[in-house]
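Dear support,

I submitted the protein below through the web form. The confirmation email said the job was done, but the results page showed an empty box. After a refresh the structure appeared. I'm attaching both so you can tell me whether what I see now is the final result or a partial one.
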Amino acid sequence: MALGTSDFFLRPGNLVGMGSADLHADEAEAYRQSKPGTALFITDAFGARVLRYVKNLNATALAVGDLVSLVSDTQNTISTSVANISSGTTLKAVTSGLTADKHNGMICYVLDNADSAGAAPEGEWSPVSYNSATEIYVDPQKPYSAALAANDDLELLSVYHVEDAADGDEGWTVAGVACGKDGISVGNYGWVVSHGMTMAKHTTNAISEGDPIVAGAAVVDAFGTDGQELWVGIAASTCSTDETLKHLPVFMRVWHSAGPGGSP
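What the results page shows now:
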């Protein structure tokens, strides 16, 4: 049965238990272990932590300790814009220039209805079942209430799709630190720490214990004068700048970031 536009849930799942070996996952098929996007609350010898099960859409493999952000085509968003589609139905959009399967599992939000401003399906959303280079198919259990049409604009919103973090990424767009000992291969699924104590790669910049940390190029960095919208956690120790293995104990705080505002 198709769900209405006011139904904000689709195939909900429950939290499941995991062992230590499970947390080092580097899985080509997510459903062998967990649903993509699963949040895991654990307590171990390093304290209470929140992990997220993500998919690596980076151009290269993620290594343990890498900082990752949700995929987007513009910094400080979690969206990829698809402007002026060619045509569509209640379940499909025809466009061009996409990478096949890249957007599977993202949320397809109808930003603009070109032929009738404000009319359906503008303002509706549905998960992407799969995409080719030219077509986006949404979940058949969640069709739009009216057909998409030429020149409609869409936004594809990342849910669990990650890539290397970058300098200037706001905290709300950062997913966490890759924690599997073998990392996460390109296109595979694995776990990142979003909240709690973990080790993270850092730069050669000095970081003091108790100071905020911000995103760098797949690393955490000193906050300098960066506002709270860029903070992703707190340094649990002062870092050494000459160490061979540049890992720093940090308390990650992107499960619930400070927010996008520079000041209260």
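Response: this is the final, complete result; the empty box was a page-load delay. The chain has two domains: 21-73+161-253, 79-157.
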